Amino acid sequence: MTRTILMLPGDGIGPEVAAAAKLCLEAVASAEGLDLAFDDAPFGGAAIDAAGTPLPDETLSKAKAADAIFLGAVGGPAWDEAPERPEKGLLGIRKALGLFANLRPVKVFEGLEDLSPLKADRVRGADVLIVRELTGGLYFGEKREGETEAFDGCAYSRDEVERIARIAYRAAAARKGRVTSVDKANVLATSRLWRRTVTAMAGDYPDVGLDHLYVDAAAMALVTGPARFDVILTENLFGDILSDEAAVIAGSIGLLGSASLGLTGPGLFEPIHGSAPDIAGKGVANPAGAIASAALLLRHGLNEPGAADRLEAALETELRDGERTADLGGTAGTMAFAQKVAERAAKLRAAA
Q1: How far apart are CA 58 and CA 40, in angstroms?
Q2: Are residues 43 and 58 in the same domain?
Q3: What ranges in 251-287 are assigned the alpha helix state H?
Q4: Is 240 annotated in the active site?
Q5: C-alpha 14: how far from its chain's center?
Q6: Model pTM above 0.85
Q7: Active-site residue 216, yes or no?
């Protein structure tokens, strides 16, 4: 059975890391006997240049028809004055595809503690999954903007909280069995609804422990004791900030991938770094986050856990024993690093 992956290279370094991810996907597909077909479409700033909008109708149609979607990166100062910002395309495709759950794993592999700027004994054993709600909160609330006053509304319903909490509880049940729900219930009404709802659901998951943290305390705990966490469940804005903060645990924002999932239809998989226009076209961007996202695509988008394991193992091994990109103190270029990972993935499969 042929599965179609829609590639949205996007902006800045997006096309470079997308090409690296595709190379690794092709290598793993060949080794595992998977039949993958690739399509591509403009998105973000590139789509504004090509079609005048960050999410053209044709791109969205292709996305709805795909089995999974890979996004490189979006945005950049070149579109600061555009009528629609590139990031609006990202919000639009999430809403159109019903992608309400963002999964961001942050893991420090044994032997790779040196990559983190934090002390090795502080990050050793850290393995955190951040589950972020994607389609509610401030980003999608009522907005007003004037010269002297602006307003952003934050709204959540019980149903919205329940469906994202269910994702977190189920994930924790398959991991270490603990959910930490992050809110600001001492200040925000939406957070109090969030806390009540998450707490009421705990009885449905007797094997999963639950605790609550205010977002400021969670931000501190992430860098002082990240190994205390298993699954962090939180709303849209808090999740956006905390997941980027968590990148420091692993050592570089260039290392981390993400998955955005809905109840049905294709998921969207992307590295969490930005478009980095200052290094675009130089072939020096770290593709590890894109490759990690490709592994998430195999696992959650195509239901191929074996293939995902192969790619993750190859990436971990290359980071530990092989070459690294400049942001991690090495000299490997984007595609050279990806080629090494692809070769390791093929060898791992051959040796299995």
Answers
A1: 11
A2: yes
A3: none
A4: yes
A5: 14
A6: yes
A7: yes
